[in-house]
Amino acid sequence: MRQNRRPLLVAVVISATVCWVVLATYINPGPALGSGPTAAPTAAPGPGPGPAPAAAGEAPSLPDPVAWRGFSKKEISQLSKLGRMLFLQDTANLTPRNKTFTVLMWKHGLYMENRHIFHFGKERHDPYEDCSVRNCRIEYDDKFLSKADAVIFHLHQTKSINELPRRLPEHRNQRWIFLTDESPHHTFMFDRSTNKLKNYVGVFNWSMSYRMDSDVPVPYGRAIPLTKEEAAAALATIPVSKNYALGKNGTVAVMGSNCGGWNHRWDYVRELQKHMRVDVYGGCGNNSRACPGGFRKDCPKIKNYKFYLAFENSNCRDYVTEKVWWNAYRNGAVPVIMGDTQENIRHILPRKSYLHVDDFASPADLARFLMHLDNSDRDYNTYFQWKYKYKIVNEHGYFQSPVYHYCRVCEALNYNDESTKIYEHPEEFLNVERDCKYTK
Ligand SMILES: *[C@@H]1O[C@H](CO)[C@@H](O)[C@H](O)[C@H]1NC(C)=O
Ligand SMILES: *[C@@H]1O[C@H](CO)[C@@H](O)[C@H](O)[C@H]1NC(C)=O
Ligand SMILES: *[C@@H]1O[C@H](CO)[C@@H](O)[C@H](O)[C@H]1NC(C)=O
Ligand SMILES: *[C@@H]1O[C@H](CO)[C@@H](O)[C@H](O)[C@H]1NC(C)=O
């Protein structure tokens, strides 16, 4: 607590406006802080009651469903048809095919039911609940290999290429799909020294992962621009003058049960703790009894905090997990992100809905800024104006939330391009050197 006092005092004595100017100098001007073409209301809080959203009843100007992500033409061309539907709201020419597809989950179907059918809870769910199609049958038994239209291989559980069946000539039209929900550092759980993606030459036809350019994208969550009707409903239910800081008696929380990370995230947390109070839930902190971490039991206590440290275990492209979508957004806490680069994350999250550690020179600078926002409800509330323009959906089953893996594979079989595709070198798709970035 002793270390807390000095910076806090500094933040308190300087008037809010001056403070903003001072603090702004700690931040590299970056797209994350709201300079994008469709940036949410006024980036820098000026004098007055903060950004002025549309008057009651008046629809705010909504983000363009394609432009807001700031994708290049090339990035758009790399999306599958299903990817365009999920990330650009492009539903043109999506006609389901008139047949029933058989999808074989190779070897690990039962194990994966925990997520895909039970949503980490006790109840079974229909895998096509809230899905645009349902003309697929999921099978677990090897005997369906000859009949399957698609075979899914869960790489995390796969110990070597020898676990895969032989592809016979009559399997030519099947889609062999590799599935991973993990960053490229953790593609395989077993035998990592010999079991490498580069061994799987020319085996797979499709990719299935959180990456937006997957043939079958299964992101942990998504931000989706509101429709006019949804925006009007949001305005009608959340007053634009709402104070999002109200009732929050905690400033910064983080939860973790994996106390490691390629980005040394816990070193950063400990450093941050020298400058301000950070409450740690889960196995890596003092509060593991209050919230165990993991995917079974939610941690509603996070709702009491203004910020959540969404520190991923690796800093890799598109790897944005439940730490952001659920722990932070869902609990009404502003995510402070360590993970994907700010440059890429603007393709994924609404402007001014989050902070990113790379925008701060040091944990001390981040602490100063967090304490400033903690002291200025007006400035804090600028991180919530996106809620009148976007919604957040969670799609990976944690804490009994919806999960769409089987839905997405079925949609891909219905909608995606039917042409032949082969991943000759899958390690070029999931690549640590290219996709994961670390400072020093
Ligand atoms: C769908 O396929 C079935 C059997 O192949 C056929 O009888 C039916 O007419 C088809 N329906 C449409 C809408 O094409
Ligand atoms: C906030 O208040 C709740 C309810 O009174 C309490 O359980 C919790 O410990 C408080 N949290 C902090 C960070 O002070
Ligand atoms: C965590 O526990 C240690 C030792 O038991 C204690 O010194 C420290 O104050 C605790 N931290 C918090 C945030 O409660
Ligand atoms: C899938 O990949 C195999 C190569 O392993 C190839 O022979 C086959 O034509 C591909 N099928 C499709 C539908 O792309």
From TrEMBL:
Membrane topology: Single-pass type II membrane protein
Domain Fucosyltransferase C-terminal: 247-425
Name of the protein: Fucosyltransferase
Highest taxon, organism lineage: Eukaryota
Family: Belongs to the glycosyltransferase 10 family.
Organism: Gryllus longicercus
Keywords assigned by UniProt, alphabetized: Glycoprotein, Glycosyltransferase, Golgi apparatus, Membrane, Signal, Signal-anchor, Transferase, Transmembrane, Transmembrane helix
GO terms, molecular function: fucosyltransferase activity
Entry keyword Transmembrane helix: yes
UniProt KW Signal keyword: yes
GO CC term (a single one): Golgi cisterna membrane
Region: Disordered, residue numbers: 36-60
EC primary class: transferase
Pathways involved: Protein modification; protein glycosylation
Span of domain Fucosyltransferase N-terminal: 99-221
Entry EC number(s): 2.4.1.-
Residues in the signal sequence: 1-24
Subcellular location: Golgi apparatus, Golgi stack membrane
Pfam family, one: Glyco_transf_10
